[in-house]
Design a protein that fits this description.
By secondary structure, the protein is of the alpha/beta class. The protein has helices at 47-54, 77-87, 103-108, 116-120, 122-132, 148-160, 178-195, 206-209, 227-235; strands at residues 2-13, 21-32, 36-40, 62-67, 70-71, 88-92, 166-170, 198-202, 214-219, 222-225. The chain binds adenosine-5'-triphosphate and magnesium ion. Adenosine-5'-triphosphate is lined by residues 13, 15, 21, 23, 41, 43-49.
């Protein structure tokens, strides 16, 4: 099933006192359930801007962006917020955990916005999610007592606790060493496989990109399939 579809999308911003700047130019991409997509590109090539569109945080300046077969611009801002909360999980380089709160409290947070069973059973569900990322023994630890890799695992648990259909990861391993980074990616992949979610990963790291099944490169706002990485993936 197609989750997201972009056709000839541009994103232009108008900074005050500066000429208009086209950050994304003619971007087309389809994201299906279970997809594993990587996007690599230099700093400033438009990766985060693209991720903000995929996450329904911004709208295209022109072109088509559809979520679940419906143009995103036909949703109200409130509907987009609801879809994002229920169906999209973001993972960032900075873990963005609430500092004074325990791991369990951090992971419970998104479930406060859920309904029915997810809301009423939120503590149990959050504890199970932390168990799944290997932190069942650290439920009561605050972020300052956790290593970088552990903090990222809490952040992953928080992003995935509502069972999103689309996981968007922006440099998820950027602040971690090589081994910890690969472990974190394995973890995200395992949760995505369990839930059937699609995963789009933005990365500078070819080893992280090689884990995906579809490879793209973003260059000055233009998205193209990355033949080199695709060939490397076939050999692996
Ligand atoms: N709201 C904005 N106003 C003006 N310029 C912007 C705005 N948003 C992004 N840009 C510019 O657009 C370009 C792309 O930004 P973006 O954050 O998407 O890059 P990126 O590929 O994620 O880079 P990095 O790898 O450093 O995170 C940059 O040159 C940035 O300065
Ligand atoms: Mg970025």
């Amino acid at each position: 099933m197609t989750l997201l579809h972009l056709e000839d999308v541009t994103r232009t911003v108008m900074p005050p006192d500066l000429p208009a700047l086209t950050i994304l130019n003619g971007v087309s991409l389809t994201v299906e359930e279970n997809d594993r997509i990587s996007v690599v590109g230099r700093s400033g090539s438009g990766k985060s801007t693209l991720l903000n569109l995929l996450g329904l945080l911004d709208l295209p300046t022109s072109g088509v962006l559809e979520f679940d077969g419906r143009p995103v611009k036909s949703y109200s801002a409130r509907e987009r917020d609801r879809i994002r909360g229920a169906s999209i999980g973001f993972i960032f380089q900075q873990f963005n955990l609430l500092p004074g709160r325990t791991a369990l409290e951090n992971v419970t947070m998104p479930l406060l916005y859920a309904e029915g069973r997810q809301f009423w059973r939120r503590k149990t569900i959050a504890a199970e999610m932390l168990e799944e990322v290997g932190l069942g023994h650290r439920l009561e630890s605050t972020p300052d007592r956790l290593s970088g890799g552990e903090q990222q695992r809490v952040a992953i648990a928080r992003s995935l606790v509502r069972g999103p259909r689309l996981i968007l990861a922006d440099e998820p391993t950027g602040a971690l060493d090589l081994d910890t980074g690969q472990n974190v990616m394995e973890l995200i992949d395992a949760v995505a496989t369990r839930t059937g979610a699609a995963l789009v990963t933005i990365t500078h790291d070819p080893a992280i990109a090689a884990r995906s099944r579809s490879h793209y490169r973003l260059d000055h706002g233009v998205l193209t399939p990355d033949a080199e990485l695709a060939a490397a993936g076939e050999l692996a």
